[in-house]
UniProtKB/TrEMBL annotation:
Coiled coil: none annotated. One of its GO terms (molecular function) is oxidoreductase activity, acting on the aldehyde or oxo group of donors, NAD or NADP as acceptor. It holds the Pfam family Aldedh. The active site is at 252. Keywords: Oxidoreductase. PROSITE patterns: ALDEHYDE_DEHYDR_CYS (PS00070), ALDEHYDE_DEHYDR_GLU (PS00687). Belongs to the aldehyde dehydrogenase family. InterPro entries: Ald_DH/histidinol_DH, Ald_DH_C, Ald_DH_CS_CYS, Ald_DH_CS_GLU, Ald_DH_N, Aldehyde_DH_dom. It comes from Mycolicibacterium anyangense. Transmembrane segments: none annotated. Residues 17-480 form the Aldehyde dehydrogenase domain. This is Aldehyde dehydrogenase.
Length: 489
């Protein structure tokens, strides 16, 4: 790609696009870090005040708007997004670093999520219980929470915001959103789509800035709930802040997701899916495959074939259609992931693929890492700590039982993948592997909009996301004991 003029960053407050007055903020192309993608000035704490105030002011009338009308705006925004899938997908690849095909796919996925929630008005809205008293019914109705703070990560710059903002809005909440400061351009695109679709002023506010701005938002007294996806450290800090203020919070955090390949697996399928799970989006998904457990009967054969595929993966500029894996998001991420690999090697890990930094040429200039596979024989940091990059830590197991135990050997429990053709083994995996999302014979990443998404153990806090699970978080219930005006006996 060629250098072009950086996009100018703006914030959306009370329906107005405004320039910031804070520190300079810019996103760069992680494949060619000399190229600035978007730049401007960050929002300030005064902007947080203004945005929360605008969201609070818009809340009553938005909550009073029929859900079908709220949904119609999401459906229209989905159409706008779909229309821009190719150009916004390219921008996403340039700003975030995933391949163009993945970028376009993600933009389409955002549209699909908006469509799912856009149709929520057609679904069941509450419950009715029978009453032990004559002439009475008990209804459970749902109401919005109020102003929701939405804090989103860099790795899905439009899909994750869509899956938080769409349910927040359709259930009648108003939103103040702070995206990761590395991907502001795609945030602006989503906000533009919703504005173009007719979202009233103040219902969605967008503020771009660093984590201090996020802290200001989360701690703002006008915020009624917080939804967050990102690192475990930040998630726990935000959860503590929300708990201290007594407001509901939902945090999707780390993963250290295992793929388990048993002796009886379809090995070609497992190879393909482990590659996708580990290296798509350069391994920067909380659902990525970062651990691999193989049973002894197929271990040598499988690992040799997997290492050959990893070595053959086309790493390069994500806008080049031949590229299969782009860079990681920042130079800091590249350094910390490489340090994680180096530490494992120092402690005795065997490198099966990759492992060493690119020392010259364009891959050394961009934030690239080689697809890396290391084998370990026992406990190691690379087995327990989320690196959020293109790295698989491998262990061998002597039985399916041991393999499932190794899959569970993590404080996280987001997702796992099990490769077997034996139904009994698959059902044992369902019983024994403690995760929020389990894939049998498919990669560990991926999430459909109509089903619950989220982790077990320390991967998440609060209700799950997506589908009907989203309703649990974005609404509260009022139980109504409903009688007519006649005496009951
Ligand atoms: C996916 O697996 O396609 O931050 C989605 C993340 C997750 C979303 C994963 N919250 O990577």
């Amino acid at each position: 790609m060629t250098a072009s003029t950086p996009e100018k960053l703006h914030h959306l407050i009370a329906g107005q696009w405004v320039a910031g007055r804070g520190d300079a903020v810019r996103s760069v192309n992680p494949a060619l870090p000399g190229i600035v993608v978007a730049e401007g000035a960050a929002a300030t704490l005064a902007d947080v005040d203004a945005a929360v105030g605008a969201a609070a002011e818009a809340a009553r009338s938005w909550a009073g708007t029929p859900m079908h009308q709220r949904g119609a705006i999401l459906l229209e925004a989905a159409t706008v997004i779909e229309r821009h899938a190719e150009d916004w997908g390219l921008e996403l690849a340039i700003e975030e670093g995933k391949t163009r095909a993945e970028g376009v796919g993600e933009v389409r996925r955002a549209a699909q999520i908006l469509r799912y929630f856009g149709n929520e008005g057609d679904r069941v809205a509450g419950q009715i219980y029978s009453s032990p008293r004559a002439g009475e019914q008990i209804l459970v109705t749902r109401k919005p929470l109020g102003v929701v703070a939405v804090i989103t990560p860099f790795n899905f710059p439009i899909a994750i915001p869509a899956w938080k903002i769409a349910p927040a809005l359709v259930y009648g909440n108003t939103v103040v959103w702070k995206p990761a400061s590395t991907v502001p351009l795609l945030a602006i695109r989503l906000a533009e789509a919703l504005s173009t679709a007719g979202l009233p002023a103040g219902v969605l506010n967008l503020l771009i800035g660093d984590s201090a701005l996020g802290d200001g938002l989360v701690n703002h007294e006008g915020v009624d709930a917080v939804t967050f996806t990102g690192s475990t450290g930040v998630g726990r800090r935000i959860a503590a802040a929300a708990a201290a203020r007594g407001v509901p919070m939902q945090a999707e955090m780390g993963g250290k997701n295992a793929a388990v390949v048993l002796d009886d697996a379809d090995l070609d399928l497992a190879l393909e899916q482990v590659m996708l799970g580990a290296f798509r989006s350069t391994g920067q998904k909380c659902t990525a495959t970062s651990r691999l457990v193989v049973t002894e009967g197929i271990a040598d054969r499988f690992l040799t074939a997997l290492a050959a595929r990893a070595d053959a993966l086309a790493v390069g500029d994500p806008t080049d259609d031949a590229t299969q894996m782009g860079p990681v998001i920042t130079g800091g991420a590249r350094t910390s992931i490489q340090t994680g690999i180096d530490t494992a090697v120092t402690h005795g890990a065997t490198v099966l693929a990759g492992g060493t930094p690119y020392r010259d040429g364009p891959l050394a200039e961009g934030y690239f890492l080689a697809p890396t596979i290391v084998e370990i024989a026992g406990p190691a940091d690379i087995w327990t700590e989320e690196l959020f990059g293109p790295v698989i830590a491998v262990r061998r197991a002597t039985s399916a039982e041991e393999a499932f135990a190794l899959a569970n050997d993590s404080e996280f429990g987001l997702s796992a993948a099990v490769f077997t053709q034996d139904l009994t083994r698959a059902l044992q995996a369902v019983d024994h592997i403690d995760v929020g999302v389990l894939h049998i014979n498919s990669e560990s990443a991926g999430a459909d909009p109509h089903v619950p998404f989220g982790g077990a153990k320390k991967s998440g806090l609060g209700p799950k996301e997506q589908g009907q699970a989203a309703r649990e978080f974005f609404t509260h219930t009022t139980t109504v004991y409903l009688r007519g005006g006649q005496p009951q006996s």
